[in-house]
Every structure is written in C-alpha cells, then in structure tokens.
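Below is how a single chain appears once it has passed through the pipeline. First comes the sequence as given, then the structure the pipeline wrote out for it. We keep one example in the README because the format questions we get most often are answered faster by looking than by reading.
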Amino acid sequence: MPPEITFVRLSAVAPREIIDHMSDPRVATHLPLLTGAFDQRACAAFLDAKDACWRRDGLGHWAILADGVYAGWGGFQKEGVEWDFGLVLKPDYFGLGVRVAKKALVFARNDPRIPYVTFMLAESRKHLRAFDRLGAGYVGETRYGDAVFVKYRLDTN
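Resulting structure:
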C-alpha cells in the first residue's frame, strides 16, 4: 500500500533531518543554487527564508511526510507574479514525486490566488515526462541566480 502523504510546516522537522537531506550528494546534483556545505547555519537561514515566504505570501514550502516520516520538502513560493512549485525529496522517496505534486496541485486548484503554477527544473533533470503527465507545458529556459533552469507551466483553473 502506498504511504500516506501529509504536509506540515518545516519547523515541525528536526533541523538535523533537513541538514542530512540537503547534504546528500544525490540531492545536491539537482540543486544548482545549493553551494557550499548545508550546515546548521545554512539550515537556519533556509528555514528563516521559508518562514518569511509564509509571512509575506500566506503560503510557502512544507515538510512532506510519508506515513509520518520526513520524506523531503516542497510547496509553492511566489517568484514575482508567479507561484513556483518546488519539490526536493530524499533519495529513498524520489519515486513519490508525482504523487506529492498531484496532492499539492489539488491545493493550488482550490486557492484562487494561484491561476497557474510554474516548475523550474535544473538542467541536470533528464526525466521530464512526469510534467507531461501532470499536464504542464514547456515554457523554455530561464535564468535564476547563476543557474539556467528548464521551465514548465500548468494552469490550475
């Protein structure tokens, strides 16, 4: 039976779990903006930034639990006028990406602030058929910081 997926605030997860997750080289491969060690200081700054999104926009990233166990983080972050959906799972949970995204997209479809969602993927991501299955359309390449991302868009209404 597939695990039950739940979303909770990132602050509900021990920072050590997030540090271990973000320090895994299999995860870092697909996070071009992650530079340097993801230590306690980096984790505290990360959590502060994610909390700031919740305060500013009333929405942000969640910790994702699979049967109550931390599986990663993801959710919606406002980038200019667009709501971008990001998802960073622990390697043992990589196969849950589509299920997690579908659950999050139900949330987006019920939120009148989100007429569409964007997805910005690192160029290292080669398996992109899941975005077709979700109904997302290819937009093109976009630069964010010092990295180039492949961008998709999905209308939510």
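The first helix runs from residue 15 to 22.

See the next section for the split statistics.
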